[in-house]
Specification:
56% of the residues lie in helices and 13% in strands. The protein has 488 residues and is α+β, with helices and mostly antiparallel strands.
């Protein structure tokens, strides 16, 4: 490409789009893990880099043209797609002539003898100055459950091959069953969203009332709001490649960037202010509460670590009961950043939000139970309901989601009642350990040196932030002042 072409690249997850996700799910569930592994890299696409070449200057009609190249992890080119303007002149081949071009492309791209394939369809689209074709062939050499086929598809614009790739054709009956299941799941998802909306509204009311009564650590509120805004803006800057990948060539780049950045900044300011408010209220109640049951011989931070390990172990046991809906492909958002090490900043932001949520929930439960003296079943039920709402989107069926929610909600309530509520200094270590365990699991799935380096840096940041938060919680004085803390 010449200098007028802009190059962008983003990692693309195989389960990120509906059609590939459905094909992967079908093979995984119906054919089994062994067949699935055999088809990865050939019929089924692995995680890819998608490289885009586009132009943002010149005539609008010509800027429609762009290239998208899919590159696998070992640097091999899997697919090249060339998008052309509809007005671009080209040949108007008949089906026989276009079929010859398509079969040559299959031989060149995949080394497959077209005679071994079974013709399935040929769809023509008449453009103003050319005729486009899409051919599909089945590959009978690939064994799949009845009704499914491994297919090769070739797209022609005139006589130019503008796209060629492999995919799994999923039976229509299976698709309908999945769509019906997804429809029922969407209804449950709406119900779960309603639960979260009510929970957020209740939390906001509690936070505003507490702030009006002066029950807010203003120092924490300001520091958390400012640092959270810096972190969120930094994350946005590191994530600019994703924004560039989505730019439309038909619209001015400056206006698209301005709208995205201004709108994003406004949203991030609102999030930073909200997190700061919740943090101030949560930390105020945490520091003002009287320490309760002694933590035996364990330091508070170690008790928090042990509680996180116990909860993660129970969650893993519950997860093992239900077979996964999709194969477990690791997600590494760091690869999508302009600088992968910028993901450490994302870890810091995630820790700030998680720690704020933990302290605020602890304050809410303390208020709901009148200092853990009554209404304990109501508090446990609220946590269970929120846990079920969180489990529903990731589960295929209702019963496993309910089981996971009930188990998760009750174990979390037990951790809060038995450990976290008795000493605020247990909470930072608890949250840091929980995030570190999740990061370790994802990193072990990636198993690349850079991934382990990023995990080590993120773990170090978590330890540092947990230490700072623990030190602040252990300092004397009423929240936001230097006066001694009185009992509640």
């Amino acid at each position: 490409p010449g200098p007028e072409w802009q190059r962008m690249a983003m990692p693309r997850q195989v389960l990120g789009e509906s059609s590939p996700r459905q094909a992967h799910a079908f093979v995984w569930r119906e054919a089994g893990a062994s067949v699935y592994r055999q088809l990865i890299g050939s019929t089924l696409a692995p995680p890819l880099w998608e490289v885009r070449f586009a132009r943002f200057d010149g005539a609008v009609a010509e800027r429609v043209e762009e290239w998208r190249v899919s590159v696998t992890g070992d640097g091999a080119i899997r697919q090249v797609v060339h998008r052309l303007p509809e007005s671009r002149a080209g040949a108007s081949l008949d089906e026989a002539g276009a079929s010859v071009v398509a079969q040559h492309a299959i031989r060149d791209a995949f080394g497959i003898d077209p005679a071994l394939l079974v013709f399935r369809s040929a769809d023509a689209t008449q453009q103003p100055a050319r005729r486009d074709w899409v051919f599909a062939y089945a590959d009978p050499r690939v064994a799949l459950p009845a009704g499914a086929e491994a297919r090769v598809q070739v797209s022609l614009a005139g006589e130019e091959v503008v796209g060629i790739g492999r995919y799994v054709f999923v039976p229509e009956t299976w698709q309908r069953r999945e769509e019906e299941r997804d429809g029922r799941h969407d209804v449950l998802g709406l119900a779960a969203s309603g639960i979260f909306v009510l929970a957020v509204l209740g939390a906001l009311i509690f936070a505003v009332l507490a702030w009006n009564r002066g029950q807010c650590d203003r120092r924490v509120q300001v520091v958390v709001s400012v640092t959270m805004l810096v972190g969120l803006v930094g994350n946005a800057l590191f994530g600019l490649p994703a924004l560039f990948m989505q730019l439309q060539t038909a619209e001015p780049v400056a206006s698209q960037l301005a709208l995205s950045l201004v709108g994003g900044l406004a949203g991030r300011v609102a999030i930073a202010l909200l997190v700061g408010l919740l943090a101030g209220v949560g930390v105020f109640h945490a520091r003002a509460a009287t320490a309760g049951m002694a933590m035996a011989s364990l330091p508070p931070w170690l008790a928090g670590v042990c509680a996180a390990l116990a909860l993660r172990g129970l969650a893993a046991a519950v997860d093992a009961i239900e077979a996964p809906i999709y194969p477990q492909w690791p997600e590494q958002p760091a690869w999508a950043l302009a600088w992968p090490w910028g993901s450490v900043l994302g870890t810091a932001v995630a820790y700030g939000i998680a720690l704020t949520t933990a302290f605020f929930v602890l304050a809410l439960l303390t208020r709901l139970t009148a200092g853990w003296s009554r209404r304990l079943p109501l508090a446990a039920g609220a946590l269970v309901l929120l846990a079920i709402a969180s489990a529903l989107p990731a589960s295929r069926d209702v019963l496993p989601a309910v089981l996971a929610g009930v188990t998760g909600g009750l174990t979390m309530f037990a951790a809060i009642a038995l450990v976290l509520r008795h000493h605020a200094q247990t909470v930072p270590a608890f949250v840091a350990t929980t995030l570190a365990l999740a990061g370790a699991q994802s990193t072990a799935q990636v198993a690349l040196p850079l991934a382990w380096g990023l995990f080590a840096a993120s773990a170090a940041v978590l330890v540092l932030l947990a230490w700072v938060a623990t030190r602040y919680l252990g300092s004397s004085g009423t929240p936001g002042t230097n006066k001694h803390v009185a009992g509640p």
